[in-house]
């Protein structure tokens, strides 16, 4: 969510000013791994069951 967007902005740019650049579309998700200061995206997908909620 927005917490991950903020962390990505800080890691990439050193500030959260560009948080919008790291926003994901609605109903998407990411799985990250952080080892020895290196952040790797392991998986990205769309939670299709959430796209149809009212």
UniProtKB/TrEMBL annotation:
Lineage: superkingdom: Bacteria
Protein name per UniProt: Histidine phosphatase family protein
